[in-house]
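Posting this for the archive.
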Amino acid sequence: MSTPEPDALAWEKYPQFHQWFNKLYLSERLGYKCGPCGLAPSESGWYCVRPVMNLAGMGVGARKQWINAGDNRSVEPGYFWCEWFDGRQISATYRWRSGWIPISAFEGVRDVENLSRFSYWMRTEAPILRGFEELHSAEVLNVEFIGDRIVEIHFRESPDPDADLFIPIWADMDVPDDMIPSFEDADGYLPVPRLGFVVK
């Protein structure tokens, strides 16, 4: 049996916030164009399709997909579609101090086709996080942004290295001598596991 993923541990720790682990709920709450399997979008376009819930992490199952208006069969059960956002991808961690105060933030550069695979992460300035006062008892949040849009909220700190630049090393790459081991395969659902990081 493997060690539970950070989001699975947070699920057990914060039962009062379970609905926030539901990415369709979050997308609806934030007013995005979105819907579950069986519901067709009203406009043709590019959408982000991913599991409604994923406690294994690493963006497993997420993909960019063209969906035609009225097509209610292009998304499988357990998944949902949401309008596609372009922009910088930032993972920022905040601590509650009578408001959400940023601790750290990193901008990720990822593979164009594989939404789970990042080339590197570099330190950047955290976006201002307004609202979400009802989550203050969690004390810490890790929030994922695409551009200025929130796409995920995690009830934990970022598990990645705290460095100015860190480069994931994947199992299909040569392993450098200075790699810091940090194995991650999203409970076996990541086709190419991450072996660790090189920190700069």
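The helical segments are 6-13, 23-29. The chain has two domains: 21-83, 89-199.
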